[in-house]
Amino acid sequence: MGWFAHRVAGFSLLQGMLLGAIVSATDAAAVFSILRSSGVSLRQHVTAVLELESGSNDPMAVFLTTALLQLLVNSSAAYGFLVVDFVKQMAFGAAAGIFIGFAAVRVLNRTRLDYPGLYSVMTIAIVLFTYGATNLIGGSGFLAVYLAGIVMGNRNFIQRRTLTRFHDGVAWLMQIAMFLTLGLLVFPSHLAPVAGTSLTIAAFLIFVARPLAVFASLSFSRMSIRDKVFISWVGLRGAVPIVLATFPLLAGIPMAPAIFNIVFFIVLASVMIQGTTIAPIARLLRVTVPTVTDWSPAEAHLASRGESALLTLQVEEDSAAAHRRVVELGWPRETLILVVYRGKEFFVPNGATELKANDRLIVLTSKESVESLQASVTARRSPTACCS
C-alpha cells in the first residue's frame, strides 16, 4: 500500500508507508452489525479470524503510525530503537492485559455492590486503569485493553450479560461521536482536488493490497479459498483510520492534509463498496450458516447442540453449594438457573445471588452437564470449609 501511494500520489516512500499504516486498521464491529441487520451468520472459524484481526491490528496500526511519524519528524531516528520499542510495547501490553483480565474477574466476583448499575462504572474504571497503567510501564495500552477483554469474555463473572450489552452500547456511542467530531475536520473544498488519486488508492487497497495480505497471512491455513476470498473482501475501514489520520496533522509533517483527505476518501469508499456488499458476497461464497435467534447465551448454546435438559436441584444444609454465590459454583456456561424457590418465595437469580440451604433450583442445561451439576449440589462441604 505504501509503495503504491508513493508511486501514484507523489509521496515519499515513508509518507506512503505512513498512509498504509493509518488505513491498516479494520472494523469488525461494523462488519458484524451489517451481517446481523441482513440476517446473515458466518461460519465460526471465519468469525474468529475477523474478530482476532480487528482487535489485534489496532495496536499495530497505532505503533506503526507513531513509529513512522518519528522517522519523518526526526530523520536521525534509529531503526534499531523502534524494533526494541515494538517488542517492549507488545510484550508488556500482552502481559499486562492478560494479568489484569484475570485479576478483574476476581475483583468483580469478590466485590459486592448495593446497586447493579455500579458494576458498569467499575468496569469502565478497569478499562481506563488497564490502558493508563500499561502505557505507564511502556506497553501498548490498546493491546492490553483488548486482551483483558478477551480474558474476561471467556470467564464467568457477576452481571456478565448486562455488562456485555452495556459496553457494546458504549462502543457504538463512541464510534458515532468520533465520526461526528472528526467529520468537522473535513472541508469539502479540499476533497475535490484529491478525489481521483484517493479513489485510485482505495481501489488498490480493496482489490489488490488487502487480498494479497490476507492470502499471504493465511497461506499455511487450512481455510478454503472461499473463506479467504471473503475475509479479503470484508476489510471494512471504520473510525480508527480517521483518528490516526489526525496524528500527521498534529505532528505538522508535509503532506499531512493530503493524507487526511485521502484517508477520509478511503474510509468512505470502503463503507460504500464493501459495506453494502458484505451480505450478498457472503451468500455468494457460501460462508454462512443458519441464523439462531439469540435470546440468551444459554439458549443459543443449547440450540446449537440440539439437546437440553430441565432439572430441579435441591440445596441441602451440608451441600457444597450452600452459602456460595452462583458465580462461584463453576458451572458450565450453557447452564442457566431459571428460578430459585426459597420457602414461599421465588425469584430469578444473578451471579451475585448466594444460595441458601433448602433452596430449590430450576435449571436449564445440556444433557451432558446433568450428572456433573447433580454431583456438585449433592457433594458435601469439607470440615475445613465448614469451619472457615
Could you give a short description of this structure?
The protein is an alpha+beta fold and 388 residues long.
Describe this structure in words.
The chain has 388 residues and is an alpha+beta fold. It folds into two domains: 2-289, Up-down Bundle (Na+/H+ antiporter like fold); 297-387, 2-Layer Sandwich (Alpha-Beta Plaits), CATH 3.30.70.1450. The chain is built from 17 helices and six strands. It is elongated and about 80 Å long.
Question: Which tags fit this structure?
Answer:
388 residues; alpha+beta; 2 domains; Alpha-Beta Plaits
Question: What is the secondary structure topology, with strand pairs?
Answer:
Blueprint: H1 2-8, H2 13-22, H3 28-37, E1 41-42, H4 44-73, H5 79-110, H6 117-136, H7 141-153, H8 160-183, H9 188-191, H10 195-217, H11 225-233, H12 239-251, H13 256-275, H14 278-285, E2 288-289, H15 297-305, E3 309-314, E4 336-342, E5 345-347, E6 360-365, H16 370-378, H17 383-387
Antiparallel strand pairs: 1-2, 3-6, 4-5, 4-6
CATH architecture of the largest domain: Up-down Bundle
Q: Portion of residues in helices?
A: 55-70%
Query: Which structural class should the secondary elements be placed in?
Result: alpha+beta
Number of helices: 17
Give the rounded overall mean pLDDT: 85
CATH topology of the largest domain: Na+/H+ antiporter like fold
Q: Largest sheet, order of strands side by side?
A: 3-6-4-5
From the N-terminal CA to the C-terminal CA, the straight-line distance is: 63 Å
Number of domains: 2
The CATH class name of the largest domain reads: Mainly Alpha
